[in-house]
Design a protein that fits this description.
heterotetramer; A: about 325 residues; alpha/beta; TIM Barrel; globular; B: about 250 residues; Elongation Factor Tu (Ef-tu), domain 3; Rossmann fold; 14 strands; about 15% helix; binds flavin-adenine dinucleotide; binds flavin mononucleotide; binds FE2/S2 (inorganic) cluster
């Protein structure tokens, strides 16, 4: 069992420390139902939801990058009330616990969203997407508003201000932290010829995110979920070694959906090998490496029940 | 959507722009209908470049093999095994009892019309294909011989235009991504001028191909702004009834 | 002529808006003498120099990344006095003007470095590498210390705090800005199996750096040099379109040294094509695209003598 | 350092670990001496992956062709043209009037010794090669037949060790990057125990191969900590006199 939020009256506990990142998986995971085994995931994090409905961004939304992609969706969603109306029954039947991502547009709207989610069956927590420019005061007000519901709340911090935002969120009572939302970038859209903006994703992002996770895990006393550039079970294990209790997998889910399941199986303790007689449908290249890798790394992994002390990572 | 593997059996360069690939596919893929596509990733890719999957559009289907048409700039070699997510999209909705279908390829290669034309012309539907701009570079011998070809001008005029529209039981238009709003809006205006009273469902459809991120209906990046509900190019397209679309 | 620092009694002016970034090219460019034509460069920026000598970092210094590399050198250099003693004569004979990169360890040491560089023939400016944690007050003190020399001073700002550091440096009188020093990351060294830290480089960095350049060029009234992930002449032109007056090319110089020359020739106005009869040794794939690209982009390029108004870039 | 092109003529997989590549090279490369290497980038790389150049180490040279040995995990195919920066490094400094050379491959494949051994054994130098750990997996038939092979233990002992050191006019050692400080420091200690008075220049050299960034002596990333001056593995190595090196 993995505890994603601080101990207290209502901690958020999941079984496998792996879930998709917000924006990757849709509002209920139905898009990936036939591509991977949803029961192997620790949770499903929904696409970002705002209090008011939002349409898709105008203009370019997807631009290929070297080993990655820029995405700017504009956070399309039907608004919290219609999202709940449309997905409530599916969340109640969900094969994995649901964490609803709420965009931190304003404290008032976050409060309305939190209150509306109270009592939705299957929803086990709220993830609050903090804005890039959020100050410590903004963060305090937003997390305060999230107390409109008894659901445990995770705060997702932006990469560039990850350390300061995480400190502010922890002080403001965030149950847990998601480190980090990806950075923004500007690229030339080959189709329109224009410079366009958006968030940038790819395996190279891992280095930047892993550093932030290492810094924050040493700094705060709140569970940290690592996120950014994870493209393999080894990548995910690196985040755990840096002090995270769980990970979110982002755009690789689009590129190779089964990798999300492979990572979840690996970190969920299913150490399958072809040789050991696993069912063929449970085997993927790289899986058989699990046990060897775990053994190699034993010296740096704390296998006791206590959460491992975050190691002293280089910066 | 399912994940399967396919084997590249043959690669034919058919023009400067496009190549056709014969694929040995999982039997499930033989259910694909015109409009539905494959979302493909190579196994032999070096690392993560390119990153996103490619959309491969079928142009023909025979027992045991599927033929797709892709840009000639993409690498493809016989004996390569590729990883396929499919189907992307829904079958193009052909109106019931259709007799005359008008296709317009406005500065875009008419690849997405080829499989449809092949399927329908066997069933006795008369098909007219208007080509302009880049579309005129397409090797016409790849189309069913029954298709009547009309060459349009850059300013969107061609001989007997009004008559063509009046005869048509359905109009499908294809333009490149960045020109879709303009071209499709213009088509809808023309159609509304000609058929002032009735505009049945699917009478005028645009084919929406956007750069896809997930291709699975999850990310929302390919949303087509619509009056009534949320429409996704990858999950609800490629053919979308232009009556439903918000232009600007 | 490109003016890299504000107008005033002693502006730094170069002929071609392209130079290698600090740390890439050695202390005098000799390593690349036979690999590219140094006369085509606008300037040579030296490796970072500190007042006191520094040895290379212990442990892992280079780790491959997806489409990039992590580098952690520890800034090895013989200290400013010995650097000057060793390279002064070569700088005087340099085929391109020399800008010496001074690491902003402390205001006192920056002052000593600046004073020591006064009067070195061939040295046309100082680039001050600001530390990741530098506050506006630190920046003011460091730039103040740089006035120990009459050499024009550029301030190089870290990516994550680029906007705030650039604003502080501009207010503190920096002659020009270099945007941005690359971010730090943590990766697993495949050789030692340990997590190690360093700065991360690669073509995907361009999106993050280009965004910072666009933001800063709109904000400050000081010339900006763009730096980060430039791997082609098109990449470099994107930085100019975003408001930079010149660019620095980083790790691609190691991978394909000639690309630095190709970019310098392209942006220096040498629009060579095979067809037009260029000497074969002046031709490189991509060069012939120059004129067409310039023509395509005419609407967004201001070709007057006035510095172009920074366009309103998306974020 | 110069940039040239080379053509891959033949690829031979010589063991599970290594393959040998015959290259048709620019005549300038025929001046390379044992110790000097090529810094190579493929032309047909997809985008920027892998990013850094690869170090290719020559093992043989005949008129018009250079043979290099690289890890068998790297892709290489005949008829490929590669982009070469060379030379990386300096010739291994062989002591004057040398009669007996001792080579030690400590848990590293002895590839960097092959060309040297071939060159010197033609000139009548007696060569002993000590192999331990991974080094023992190297296919010995690729070495000159004149080279005497001694198998060492993991604990760095082999028969007649003291005598081997006493006979040797020069000792070269190779260990993998992360073990160099340890292995080379230990060698220097042994040598100092045996030859207490005189330790001529280059008597005991280590081969320093680090992961190279620039390979050109510009970035400083491959610095070897030395007592006297700044030493770079890429520009001053691979062979560095262990007397000059600071261990820990
Ligand atoms: C306070 C605020 C007010 C705005 N007002 C308007 C407005 O009035 N009209 C308008 O058109 N636009 C508005 N926007 C603009 C809007 O930010 C952009 O269109 C949109 O933010 C950019 O889309 P994006 O995908 O880059 O999301 P972001 O702005 O990058 O995301 C905001 C938050 O949502 C979460 N998030 C977003 N995308 C993802 C994802 N893919 N995966 C996981 N989490 C994600 C993150 O946690 C992030 O903190 C507003 C934005 C903010 C923050
Ligand atoms: C204030 C301070 C005090 C330190 N004290 C010590 C000490 O006492 N002992 C010790 O061993 N280490 C010390 N360090 C550690 C030292 O930072 C790291 O070993 C070294 O900074 C990491 O090397 P790096 O290549 O990542 O350079 P960075 O720390 O990343 O670089 C510092 C500055 O130098 C410039 N710079 C560095 N590398 C490059 C490059 N490749 N290209 C262009 N510009 C570059 C940048 O502008 C940057 O702002 C100190 C560092 C700082 C900043
Ligand atoms: C190996 C090493 C790396 C360091 N890296 C940094 C750094 O990145 N940023 C920084 O501000 N200081 C850095 N420092 C400086 C230390 O934080 C500290 O200020 C410095 O060592 C002086 O204190 P001390 O000598 O008493 O330890 C580093 C020091 C060492 C020894
Ligand atoms: C297309 C668009 C994008 C926006 N992006 C952001 C953003 O990224 N961050 C932010 O804080 N506000 C963003 N905003 C919000 C604006 O800064 C402004 O606060 C908002 O539009 C309300 O003011 P207005 O409606 O009077 O313009 C955006 C607004 C629009 C219309
Ligand atoms: S591409 Fe993701 S929803 Fe269509
Ligand atoms: S690798 Fe750059 S100096 Fe040796």
């Amino acid at each position: 069992m993995i505890q994603l939020t601080r101990s207290g009256k209502n901690p958020l506990v999941i079984e496998t420390p792996v879930m998709p990142a917000a924006g990757i998986f849709g509002f209920d995971g139905a898009a990936y139902r036939d591509l991977l085994d949803l029961t192997k995931l620790g949770a499903i994090v929904t696409n970002p939801v705002t209090w008011r409905p939002r349409r898709v961004a105008h203009g370019t939304r997807v631009v290929p990058l070297p080993a990655g992609v820029l995405v700017h969706t504009g956070l399309p969603n039907p608004g919290m009330r219609r999202t709940i109306a449309r997905f409530r029954a599916r969340w109640a039947r969900s094969l994995a616990p649901v964490i609803v991502h709420v965009v931190a547009t304003s404290p008032a709207e976050v409060g309305l969203c939190a209150a509306a989610l109270e009592g939705c069956e299957g929803v086990v927590g709220i993830e609050i997407g903090l804005h890039d420019q959020a100050t410590p005061d903004d963060i305090a007000a937003i997390l305060d508003a999230a107390r409109e519901s008894t659901l445990p709340a995770l705060a997702r911090v932006p990469l560039y201000s990850a350390v300061e935002s995480a400190r502010a969120a922890a002080e403001a009572g965030a149950g847990g932290l998601v480190v980090a939302a990806p950075p923004r970038g500007t690229v030339r859209d080959p189709e329109s010829g224009q410079l366009v903006g958006g968030r940038v994703y790819g395996p190279w992002l891992k280095a930047q995110a892993l550093r932030a996770v290492g810094q924050i895990a040493r700094l705060v006393d709140v569970p940290v979920i690592g996120c950014g550039g994870i493209h393999s079970a080894d990548d995910a294990r690196d985040f755990l070694e840096a002090g995270a209790v769980a990970v979110q997998v982002d755009t690789v889910t689009w590129v190779q959906p089964r990798l999300l399941e492979v990572i979840a199986r690996n970190l969920g303790g299913l150490e399958l090998t072809r040789v050991a007689g696993a069912l063929p449908d449970e085997w993927q290249p790289g899986m058989s490496e699990t046990m060897r890798l775990l053994r190699d790394r034993r010296p740096t992994l704390d296998l006791d029940d206590d959460p491992p002390a975050p190691p002293d990572l280089p910066e | 959507m399912r994940e399967t593997q396919a084997l590249i059996e043959r690669v034919r360069r058919v023009s400067a722009d496009v190549q056709q690939i014969d694929l040995a596919v999982d039997p499930a893929l033989m259910q694909l209908k015109p409009g539905q596509a494959l979302f493909v990733r190579r196994h032999n890719q070096h690392g993560w470049e390119p990153y996103l999957r490619e959309l491969w559009i079928p142009v023909d289907m025979r027992p045991g093999r599927l033929t797709v048409e892709i840009a000639s700039s993409l690498d493809a070699a016989p004996n390569e095994i590729v990883d396929v997510l499919s189907p992307v999209g829904r079958p193009i909705p052909v109106r019931p009892r259709i007799q005359h279908l008008l296709l317009i390829a406005d500065d875009a290669l008419p690849t997405p019309f080829v499989f449809l034309a092949r399927t329908l012309s066997g069933g006795g539907v008369a098909i007219t294909l208007v080509l302009n701009g880049l579309a005129a570079r397409y090797p016409l011998e790849l189309l069913s011989p029954e298709v009547e070809i009309v060459r349009g001008d850059a300013d969107w005029s061609w001989p007997d235009q009004v008559a063509t529209f009046q005869w048509a039981d359905q109009v499908l238009i294809l333009a490149p991504g960045y020109r879709q709003a303009d071209a499709y809006g213009r088509l809808l205006d023309r159609v509304r001028q000609i058929r002032t009273h009735d505009l049945p469902d699917h009478y005028a459809c645009g084919l929406f191909y956007d750069r896809l991120a997930c291709g699975a209906g999850a990310c929302g990046a390919c949303e087509v702004r619509a009056h009534d509900t949320l429409l996704l190019a990858c999950a609800d397209g490629p053919a979308i009834d232009l009556k439903r679309v918000v232009f600007r």
